[in-house]
Amino acid sequence: MTKAPPRSTPSTLSYDELRALDARHVWHPFTQAGTAPPAILALGARGATIHAADGREYLDLVSSWWVNLHGHGHPAIAQAVADQARRLEQVIFADFTHEPAVRLAARVARLLPGDLDRVFYSDNGSTAVEVALKLAHQYWRNRGQRRSVYVAFEGGYHGDTAGAMSAGHSSGYFEAWTEMLFPVKTVPFPTTWDNDPQVAAKEQAALAALDLVFANHPDQVSAVIIEPLIQGAAGMRMCRPQFLKALEQRIRDAGSLLIFDEVMTGFGRTGAPFACLKADVTPDLICLSKGLTGGFLPLSMTVAREGIFQEFLGQDLTRAFLHGHSYTANPLGCAAGLASLDLLQAPECQDRITAIETIHRSRLDRLATRPNVARPRICGTIVAMDVIGDGEGYAAGIGSRLKAAFLERGLLLRPLGNVLYMLPPYCIGEADLHRAWDAIGEVLEKL
User: Does 3 score more than 90 pLDDT?
Assistant: First the structure.
């Protein structure tokens, strides 16, 4: 049993008062407020456990929207943030720099392949993607070329700002804002799973579709963007590393840029520090966020290859990248990122990542023979399966039923429609992970 964290200051509001104020004033994300049950009031969290104000505990099996790497309230990251707050909490990054930002940029660059050396900080995954799309566009403009065609993959999701929505328009999340989006070409994503006999054919079809885009738009494609190895919000749809290698070669041959959206896959989730390393691919731009600070503070990076950075240098201000955010490279977030990297690179954490994948594989193999389980798949610490019955896709009714059943058992799982997945923090104990798998088996049996 995880000990509940103490409150720093006592609340003057009762549990019912807080719930009432939340219902009156707070607008929750990705929620239909007209039908959703009241939000769970979190009191605190430690490790993989969230403590609710009503006395219940929830095992966080989705890393609180994929951001938490090492567990809630990790003392090493908390101490790093506190120490930094006493020195420097914020400074304008247009005229100043500071040690945490410099050190974090250098450390991430050392982990990335090739000459991915230039770090542009922003606030979250969406802005990291927005920066990448704008950098690609201006890169060609600075070179005297007008390249306005972007290519993305069907089902891809890259965030909720306008450019990111445009790249993710085929995900189905953005129908309300179609008029706001700029055109983006889409090609098939060769989604695959364990023992998929059609994977090679799907990969060839995807590459052929990309070839057709290049042929129809010679010297017009600015960049191709993809979530490498795993499309997250689309339902944890996975592709093979060899597809990404073939994709990279096609893009190099066409003279375009390759953007990897590693907002979710970065920092160990795929079993390697980054999906690009697992696939042995060096993109031109890579977008990082979520796990960057270990789940403590919002921060993101768009990392560019040196040659891209060089095209923005000159004597003319209009050649520079005139983009920024108020909290760019916030020192507290950078301090959290450095502490999180220390934990990630420790042998103990690497052992935990391996152990999580091993348990996932063992338990999924047993569950995959069930008649209501299809397309089992694993990549590192991420495991997913399709649950058969009551529709498919994000709006499938079975998703809400599954979510409610798991919450009753003290498990925080948020199925993506009929796709059930786990993406736990690395600190999760083997007993807790097996408990989660036991509960999944029980719920699927009752279905």
Answer: no
pLDDT at residue 1 in the model: 46
Q: In what order do the strands lie in the sheet with 221-226?
A: 116-122, 300-305, 285-288, 257-261, 221-226, 149-153, 185-187
Read off the tokens for 130: 């927005």
Structure tokens at 364: 């999924």
Inter-helix orientation angle 331-344/75-87, to 10°: 150
CA distance linking residue 363 with residue 385, whole number of Å:
12
E strands, 267-372, where? 285-288, 300-305
The owner of tokens 């390697």 is 272
CATH topology of domain 78-344: Aspartate Aminotransferase; domain 2 (3.40.640)
Q: Is 246 exposed, middle or buried (0-12, 13-18, 19+ CB in 10 A)?
A: middle
Residues 59, 411: contact at Cβ < 8 Å? yes
Would you place residue 242 in the very low, low, confident or very high pLDDT band (cuts 50, 70, 90)? very high
Pairing status of strand 382-387 against strand 373-379 = antiparallel
Six token digits for residue 143: 């070179």
Q: Are 100 and 338 in contact (CB under 8 A)?
A: yes
Please report the pLDDT score of residue 447 as a whole number: 81
